[in-house]
Design a protein that fits this description.
22% of the residues lie in helices and 44% in strands. By secondary structure, it is an alpha+beta fold. The N and C termini lie far apart (34 Å). It has a 7-stranded antiparallel sheet with strand order 1-7-6-5-4-3-2, covered by helices on one side. Strand 3 (45-52) and strand 4 form a beta hairpin. The chain has helices at 13-21, 113-132, and strands spanning 2-9, 34-38, 45-52, 55-67, 71-76, 86-95, 98-106. It is globular, with a radius of gyration of 14 Å.
Length: 133
């Protein structure tokens, strides 16, 4: 199963790309995680722990593709993927008024789709708020 999240953001594709990858940027997916270990390069690894409902959830993977302002792809493993490798792909497309961000998370189990949809939607909304404020 797949999750797709799309947002239009009032910024350039390069700006959205940079915020997404910056672990120090409030609203980015790595910002609230601890400890954020992130090596942003192809085959670079990332690891972080997020807290939810009083529990800690480790997330880890590696960057597969990085094309500034256009495309990011990384593997994604966590307890919510049952430790199996899944793939997160982001595309940044210039549109009238900004950038269309399209995130696709593939390889999920049917019963894990709703949680990932909520999680990625929350993160995408945080990125929009971060950039547009």
């Amino acid at each position: 199963m797949n999750v797709t999240v799309t947002r239009t953001i009032k910024a350039t594709p390069e700006q959205v790309y940079e915020v997404w990858l910056d672990p120090k940027s409030p609203g980015g997916p790595w910002f609230s995680a601890r400890p954020p270990i992130i090596d942003i390069k192809v085959d670079g690894l990332f690891y972080h722990v997020s807290d939810s409902k009083g529990r800690q959830f480790p997330h880890f993977g590696r960057f597969v593709a990085l094309e500034r302002g256009k495309h990011i792809e990384y593997t994604w493993m966590s307890p919510a993927t049952r430790g199996l490798e899944t793939t997160v792909t982001l595309d940044f497309r210039a549109v009238s008024g900004g950038t269309e961000l399209v995130l696709v998370h593939t390889g999920l189990h049917d019963d894990d789709v709703a949680d990932h949809d909520r999680g990625w939607s929350f993160i995408a909304d945080c990125v929009v708020k971060r950039i547009e404020r």
